Amino acid sequence: MHTLQLLACLAAVLLVGQAFEDPDDGLLKQIKELSDEVMKNATCPDLKMGWKCGNGVCEPKHHETPQSCPMDCNDGWTPYSHQVICYPTLVAFPASIDEVVHYVHEAARTNNTLRACGAGHSTNSACCTDGILLVMTKLNKPIGITTNGDTILATFEAGTTMTDVYSYLDSNGLAIGYAVPGYRHMTLAGAISTGTHGSSPKHSSVVSSLVEALDVVTPWGEVRTYSADSADADTWRAHRAAYGMLGVIVRVTIRVQRQFQLSFSWNGELKNKDLYNAKEPVDLMAGCDYGVLHWWPNQDSLVRVCGMNTTDEPDETIRNNFICVPGQSMMSYPLAAIMQIASCYNPIKKLMEKVRHDQFTLMPYLTRKNFMGLPTPVKSGVGPSWEVMSDEGCKPEPWDHAVLTIEYELAIPMDTATEAFKFIETFLKENDLFMPMFGFFLRFGPSQETTLIAHSVGRPVVFMDFVEYHVKGPHADQYPAYNAPMLNKLVALLISKFGARIHWGKNFDFMFSKPYGINSFGDNWTKFLNVRKAADPHCLFRSTYTQDVGLAECDSTDTHAYAPPCAACAPHQNEYAPVCGKNKRTYLHACSASCDGLHALDILPGTCEDYLFYEKYHEGVNFRYAFAGQRFVKAVAAVTPAAPLLPARTQRNAHWTRSMECTCEALIPPLSAA
Q1: Engineered SS bond to 442: which of 67, 220, 293, 583, CB 3.0-4.6 Å?
Q2: pTM of the predicted model, to two decimals?
Q3: Contact predicate 632/608, CB 8 Å
């Protein structure tokens, strides 16, 4: 066993201590050789998937399936974390408000559901639907800045990323304040919808609190502007963190301020007792405008980062590299391999936590460029506010595809947080749990009443993030050091014992199931449901997940009731005789299709599930095309194909998923003349 520990130590040191300084092929080879040697002494199945899963090739011989290796075998649409796979009927990328309205009408005409999603940064099923999925990333332009006395307002399209929000504001001498999420690639509307936040012990840190107006497409396809002046208090608060349940946000106006600098300091000398001895954790942030804590309970270590507003001249090269250390993506595959092994053998995980902690505390993630133009860790300095508070993050390839993680976040009430942290340390020790990714990341939010169901509403909180490596393969239950089951239990205990709430965009789906909502938000939950019922009585924006949560309890699910009027269809509204149009849409009946501009020769009987669609002719197979110039065929018209045909649903979803980024324009149905 001593040899195994030594090999693990060497691998960990190579991985964490040197990887960011010397990411060459020779090092990668050494780590792979060490990993192979360690695997000879381990007994968990599918260890090689730690290295192979994420290489972009689906390999069934290594037990890779959509469930065990979604990054390689995905046959649907998935958020960035690959924690869930969604199977929408259609994935669309609207580039204008008119197109959003068109798809909302389309969902109603086809008696379907619709969900809108931003950059897919949510790790749970928030974006999932079996209806129409709108990915809003093409609706991504800044619209303008206006002033009214001392109030400065900035308006953006909903799919604008936080990176582009910060950059646009900075170029105009403005800033978003302290509501700066640590990760920048989420969209503005997505951040608002899920109650996303930054960190400040005394300033508003929730993005929703900055919202002054929202343009929303209702289930009837109307574009309505909501603000404090145009809506009652409950309706306005509900829209400022609505989880996509009240309509599709297409335009956002936020309150901004003049750009400012932060003078920051890094203190890695604090201990667990400093956290426990404070009357409240926020007391450790005294004097800070911005502040975060990095807590490693098993290492008896607490790192404090404090930022104070200053007028001093900034170093424009200051960067925050917390999420993505320079050179880290080069090491993503070795990290995945080592973490797969560590999940099998707990001493390796313990060692990884120690090495990762030492690297973290000795090499601050705040950097400035040295005389050679290379990032150098610093423990103090002055930088642009948004560069100090947020990390640009790694490029999606290959990091996000190699390391599969489970992301947890809770908002713990400030008045119970100290006892909660003591409980966490005891829980980790009693269950022999180690947290090698980054320990616990603690941020702060004053009490806010600007929303109804954001997890920070109604009380000052400590936001606590932590991450567990998600074992690849179908046998995670056979990995004794896979912590997810125990961490799930920890989350449940923090909710029940200390009144914690969970972040709407993270955590596992089952954690939100009824009665979580009413237990956690009380009267606010009831108020939100009343607003939702008035805004979407037929639940166009529902999904299986939101129904399980209790957000979509509907008296009626007849979304066709929202369809634009068509007098010729009136006699048929209670009939269901579906037809499939040449535009690959299923309609309730021929009359509904005619409302969308289709003629009798443009439709076939039955649903589009009855047919297969192909991008081109397949050699050796003759298909009968129903429409000239259309890639639309009946499955029964095929002459013995060379390989078995996939089921229609799988075939189409696989095609759409592959086409999302490169040819999605060809998949967007044309806007009807109406």
Answers
A1: 293
A2: 0.82
A3: no
